[in-house]
Amino acid sequence: MLPEGLSERVASWIKGLDQPAVAVLELLAVIGSRVEPDDLVTLTGQPLQALGAILEKLVRCRLVFEEERGRELTYELAHPLFQEAVYQGIGGARRRALHRGVGRALLASNRFGEAAPHFARSAKVGDREAIEALREGLRQAQGREAHGEALSILGALVELLPANDDSWLEVLTAMSWGPSGWSTTGPTTS
Q1: Which residue among 27, 65, 122, 171 has its CA within the 20 to 30 Å range from the CA of 182?
Q2: Taking the model in full, what pTM does it have?
Q3: Which of the following CATH numbers is that of domain 4-88: 1.10.10.10, 3.40.630.10, 3.40.50.300, 3.50.50.60?
């Protein structure tokens, strides 16, 4: 839980912004990590020129951090506490809708691992779209041997997929086991 004074101060800063700038701040808070301008264009539906002007204003206000390394350009909220305060200030329904939109955009780019936490935060028990995205994220995480990510996704599946649901069989096929953990050949027996 954030200190009340911090939340109030962030809310007062946000009140001074126009609606397009607030929408970008909220989106950055939901994403929770660095994001490239092209991804923001996709998520906001705004042309790069309009989005660029909003981002420039937010950077000047020191609410958003811009980092340019060679040809790579990214944006993120200026501080994790600020990110959390903005995130907490978003209403529950809007927050879920934003997570779902981010998840869908990441799926469209075949970034299942990045999409998985957004689907987990936007879903209710039995949500088929979220379960399928998480299952595919699990499969891809295992393929990359990203075991921590795979366990996190599996934890989200435990919360979303009822115990007696036949979809657990599909989750099991996304998982494969071997002597040193998961492998592509399935369970090993001695």
Answers
A1: 122
A2: 0.82
A3: 1.10.10.10
